[in-house]
Amino acid sequence: MKRKFQSITSRLWSAAALVVIIGIWQVAASAGLVPGYMLPSPVEVVQALITDFPLLMEHAKVTLAEAFLGLFCGVVLGFVMAVIMDRFDRLYQALYPLIVVTQTIPTVAIAPLLVLWFGYEMLPKVILIVIVTFFPVTVGLLNGFRSADRDMINLLRSMGAGRVQIFRYIKLPGAMGQFFSSLRISASYSVVGAVISEWLGGFNGLGVYMTRVKKAFAFDKMFAVILLISVISLVLMKLVDLLQKKCMAWEQTEEKH
């Protein structure tokens, strides 16, 4: 009960802070403290969002298709890489530094090369999303696998359990918390990665829409897209939370007791 009350209080404070920020933004824009072409008011942003909502939904379908496909491939790749590197220490020593290096290269620098190599269709966008999403999953799962209870592992070994049984009953359940934490990050990265890749080439998508309205100096529409992207990312993270509750039902039982 106390934890629930603290959660509600925290959300109320967050909502209050957001309202204050939006209020200051509206006052600054209405008073002309910031030129309208540089910072449109929240009211103008919402109006642009409502006016262009059908068109935004058409572009959002393309971006979400790219994001979901790239996220799925990134999660699968991250899971496989984590399992392999946990199983073979030599591969861990060889691959882990390379995986870290892939994250030091800015996505904006990779995107033009992918467009040059694979064209303007969906493939280069999905590849970029895979690059930015597999790393959190790989690292999160690896940390989870390697932090497994050694006493429990030794106990199962003394009972004749093999590597598969140890992985299934000890390592995998113990790493689920880290996995879903990483998946939240990857889910938000997938949308951002899709939009960044669409900036540099494409025919549809929220990134393409942003490029067009930027050239037209329609900054109210630019902010409307940013708002929509933020909402989509928050929804995806919430879906991950719901999936975690379904897959880790034992945590809910422990909290009740």
UniProtKB/TrEMBL annotation:
Keywords annotated in UniProt: Cell membrane, Membrane, Transmembrane, Transmembrane helix, Transport
Q: How does it sit in the membrane?
A: Multi-pass membrane protein
Main subcellular location of this protein, as a coarse class: membrane
Q: Name one GO cellular component term.
A: plasma membrane
Keyword GTP-binding listed? The answer is no
Extract the InterPro entries matched here: MetI-like (IPR000515), MetI-like_sf (IPR035906)
Provide the GO biological process annotations. transmembrane transport
Name by which UniProt lists this protein: Nitrate ABC transporter permease
What organism does the UniProt record list as the source? Sellimonas catena
Its taxonomic placement starts with:
Bacteria, Bacillati, Bacillota, Clostridia, Lachnospirales
